Amino acid sequence: MELPGPAEPISTGAVPTAVSLQDASVAFRLAGGRVYTAVEKANLAVAAGEFVAIVGPTGCGKSTLLNVAAGLLAPAAGHVRIFDAPLAGLNRQAGYLFQADALFPWKTAIDNVAIALEIDGVPRRQALERAQAFLAQVGLGAFSQRYPHMLSGGQRKRVGLAQVLIRDPKILLMDEPFGPLDAQTRQIMGNLLLDLWSADRKAVLFVTHDLEEAIALADRVVIMSAGPGARIIGDWRVPLSRPRDITEVKLDQAFHDLHREIWDALKDEVLKGYAQSTKAAGE
Amino acid sequence: MPRLTLLSLQVLVAVAALAFWQFFATVPILGHTLLPPFFFSKPTDVGWQIVDWFVTGVIWKHLAITLWESILAFAIGSFFGVAIGFWFARKPLVAAVFDPYVKMANALPRVVLAPIFALWLGLGIWSKVALGVTLVFFIVFFNVYQGVKEVSTTVRDNARMIGMNEAQLMRHVYWPSALSWMFSSLHTSVGFAVVGAVVGEYLGSAAGLGYLIQQAEGVFDVAGVFAGMFVLSAFVILIDIFVSLVERRLLVWRPNAAEVRG
C-alpha cells in the first residue's frame, strides 16, 4: 500500500533515528494452537527529538507495537533498531509510561520517583533531593509523602511521568497515558508533557486512540488499521508551529484541515475495528 | 449513633445476659432451678474464681506460657510460610510437584497431630508450638504464594523498564507485595497461633490456659471452666487489638487499611 505523506522522518543525515521498526510483525499463540497475528509488517522510524503519535482503532495492536519498541515483547519477524543498534532484551534507552497504574503502591510518591535513581546506585539522600525537584516540576512538590492511593488519577500520572523522566531516557514511550483521565485533566497533562518535552526534546512514541490529542501533541501522526494483522496505513506531518498550547491549537484552521484529512482515512478502520470487537465479544 | 449511647447499649447486653444467668441459676421457678449450678455455675462464682486467680497470681504463669507458645508458633510458622511461599511462587516446577502434598497436609485436621507431637516433643511447650506452627504455616504460606504470584504485570514491567534487575525486583516488588498479603492475614494467623497453643495444652500439658480449663473440667469445677473461657477470650481480644495497631502501622500505604478495622 502506498503511504500518503512521508513515511520516513526528515533525513537531514545529521539526525539519528531513535527507534526504527523494519517489517516488524507480532504474533501471539492462542489457546488451541492457533496463531493470532496482531501486527503485520510494521515500518516506522522515529528520529531523535521527534514526537510521533500512533492512532488506531481499539484493539489494533498499538500498545503491542510500543511493547516491541520497549523490548518487553520480541517481534515474530522483522527488526527493531534503537539508535542504529539492534535491540536485544529490554530497551535501556527508553522510559515507558504505562496506561494502567504502574507505581509501586507501597512506596510514597517521592520514594516511587527516587527508586528509579537508587537502583542505579545513586545514594538515597541525593536521589530523594532530585526526586523532590522532579515532583515539583510536575506540580506535586507538596504531595511527596502521599501514597499512590491518596492521589488522584492525574496526580498518579504526574508521579509516573517524574519516575520515567528522572532517568533521563533518550526515548519516551507512552501508552495512552492520559486515557483514564477526564477531559480537563488530559489537556493540562498534555500541556505539561509538551513543556517538559520542549526542554530537552526526547524522541517520543505516543500511543492514543484520540486523534485530536495526537495532532495537538505530535510532529507526526501515524495511523494503524484495525486488527488482526494491523498495519500502518498512513503517516502525516503536523504543520503546526511550536510551542503549542493544546487548547488553543485546536482552534487553528490547519488543525481542522489535518483532522478532517486523517479522519477520512481512519474512519473506515474505526468502524471495522468496532465491528470486530463486537463480533469477538459475541463469540 | 453517639459513641456513648452505643457503649451503654453494649454494656447493657452484658449486664442483662449475666443477670438472667444469675437469676435462673439461683431462684427456683415452680420448685426447680432452670440452670442447676452444678452444670452452669453462676456469674458470681465465675467472677470470684477470676478474681481469686488474679489476686493469688496463679493466672500469670499460665497466661505467660500460653502467650509464649503463641508467639513462638507465630514466628516459626511465619518464617517457614514466607520462605517456602516465596520459593514455590518463583519456581513453578517445585510448586507443581509439591502441590498434592501441600493440599493433603492442609486438609488434615490439625488436632490429630497433637498426640504425635506430644510423643515426639514431650508435654512441654514445644509440642504446643509445633501444633500452632502447622496452623500458622499454611495461612502465611498461601498468602505469600498468592502475593508473589499476583504482582500486577504493569507494576512488574514498569519496574523492569526503570532498570531493576532480578534481585532488585525481589526486594522492591515481590517482597513488599508478599508481605502485604501476609499482613492482611495477620488476624487469622495470630488467632490460629493461640488456637494451636490452647488446644495443645488442653490435650496434655502442665501449664497454660488450656491446662487450666482442662483441670477444672476434670473435677467438674464448672465455675473454673467458665472463668478460664472468659480469661481466654479477654486474652485473645487484647492480642487482636495489638495486631490491629501493628497492621495499621504496616499497611499505611493500602487504601482503606486504616478504616477496615476501625
Describe the structure.
The complex is a heterodimer of chains A (283) and B (262). With 283 residues, chain A is an alpha/beta fold. Chain A has helices at residues 62-70, 109-118, 124-137, 153-165, 183-200, 211-217, 246-249, 253-282; strands at 17-29, 35-47, 51-55, 77-82, 85-86, 94-97, 171-175, 203-208, 220-224, 232-237. Chain A is built from 8 helices and 10 strands. A 6-stranded mixed beta sheet of chain A has the order 6-7-8-3-9-10, with helices on both faces. A 4-stranded antiparallel beta sheet of chain A has the order 2-1-4-5, with helices on one face. In chain A, a hairpin with a 5-residue loop joins strand 1 and strand 2. The mean pLDDT of chain A is 87. Chain B has helices at 3-26, 37-40, 43-56, 58-90, 92-107, 114-121, 125-149, 153-161, 166-184, 186-203, 209-218, 222-250, 257-260. Chain B is mainly α. The radius of gyration of chain B is 23 Å and the shape is elongated. In chain B, 81% of the residues lie in helices and 0% in strands. Chain B folds into 2 domains: 1-40, no CATH class; 43-261, MetI-like fold (Orthogonal Bundle), CATH 1.10.3720.10.
Layout of helices and strands:
The complex is a heterodimer of chains A (283) and B (262).
Chain A: E1 17-29, E2 35-47, E3 51-55, H1 62-70, E4 77-82, E5 85-86, E6 94-97, H2 109-118, H3 124-137, H4 153-165, E7 171-175, H5 183-200, E8 203-208, H6 211-217, E9 220-224, E10 232-237, H7 246-249, H8 253-282
Helix pairs in contact in A: 2-3, 2-4, 3-4, 6-8
Chain B: H1 3-26, H2 37-40, H3 43-56, H4 58-90, H5 92-107, H6 114-121, H7 125-149, H8 153-161, H9 166-184, H10 186-203, H11 209-218, H12 222-250, H13 257-260
